[in-house]
Amino acid sequence: MSSTESPSVPAASVLPRVAPVRVGEGERIRSVGLPGVTLSVRSRPPAREGLPAALFVHGLGGSSQNWSSLMAELDGVVDGEAVDLPGFGDSPPPDDGNYSVTGHARAVIRYLDACGRGPVHLFGNSLGGAVATRVAAVRPDLVRTLTLISPALPELRIQRTAVPTGLLGVPGIAALFTRLTREWTAEQRVRGVLGLCYGDPAQVSPEAFRHAVDELERRLQLPYFWDAMARSARGIVDAYTLGGQHGLWRQAERVLAPTLLIYGGRDQLVGCRMARKATRAFRDNRLLTLPEAGHVAMMEYPQVVAAAFRDLLAESREQEGAPDTGSAADAGS
């Protein structure tokens, strides 16, 4: 199917702005030991048995908590789980210290193979979008549909606002940055991240902001925090320069799963202009652009992202000739 931009999406000025749900509400977390890696997995008890499985993969510096709002919106639509990539959230570093896109993808594949939930509806944001693309390309048997929100796929002209993040991957820069910002408070750091990632940081509730500060304070105490950040950033840079059949754009062309592409018009890390290239690369895709969204549309506009996914789900079921058991009515919308 060729790419189409959804005509049913209202102007961004009238999109519902939903404050993030209280993290932990209705959620549970468990630790899963796998060969070479231990992953923390966040989930919600499924609304009923028989729901299709979904897996959510966060971006650089994020965690499974980034998906809490969207997982709540999709309650009754999918049986969702979100992973903390190695070295992030509550997951410890990988045994081999491999934070490359391939290393993260390998961890996701190991989890899906071990839990036997595949094929899943796979979601990825930013770094997680690159990871999900690689998983879908090399293990199509594990992926039913693919939803990519501002995926970190190679850009020839990097936005200036994204350069500092990329520089974290340069050896020594993370240590230098740590020294230069030693006096910064967690509140200052969180405000900077929100300003970079949100189209409108003002929509973040005071409760969500306080939780983000508390979580950052906890993670800054981890001895591997900056190492995981720096090595993962380096992994993205390396993936950008990798050519041939292992290049991310080449792998995007190999993805067979129906794909939903979501880009934000105010994204300061992944240029919205990349949407055009993405629609040419992914063979069976649908495009949703949100002019007022930033880098984390699933946190800014979870209702809209959920509606777009439900449309993708209905289309994929029609193509498969299966009954649509996850309709909008079932989801309470």
Give a brief description.
This protein has helices spanning 68-73, 101-115, 127-138, 163-167, 173-180, 186-197, 206-220, 225-241, 248-254, 274-281, 297-300, 302-320, and strands at residues 28-34, 37-43, 53-57, 79-84, 120-125, 143-149, 259-264, 285-290.
Which key terms come to mind for this protein?
333 residues; alpha/beta; Rossmann fold; 8-stranded mixed beta sheet; 15% strand; disordered N terminus; AB_hydrolase_sf; Hydrolase; monoacylglycerol lipase activity; AB_hydrolase_1; AB_hydrolase_fold
What does this structure look like?
By secondary structure, this protein is of the alpha/beta class. The chain has one domain (12-320): Rossmann fold (3-Layer(aba) Sandwich). 38% of the residues lie in helices and 15% in strands. The protein contains 12 helices and 8 strands. It has helices at 68-73, 101-115, 127-138, 163-167, 173-180, 186-197, 206-220, 225-241, 248-254, 274-281, 297-300, 302-320, and strands at 28-34, 37-43, 53-57, 79-84, 120-125, 143-149, 259-264, 285-290. The chain has an 8-stranded mixed beta sheet with strand order 1-2-4-3-5-6-7-8, sandwiched between helices. A hairpin with a 2-residue loop joins strand 1 and strand 2. Helix 6 (186-197) packs across helix 7 (206-220). It is globular. Residues 1-23, 161-177 and 324-333 have low confidence and may be disordered.
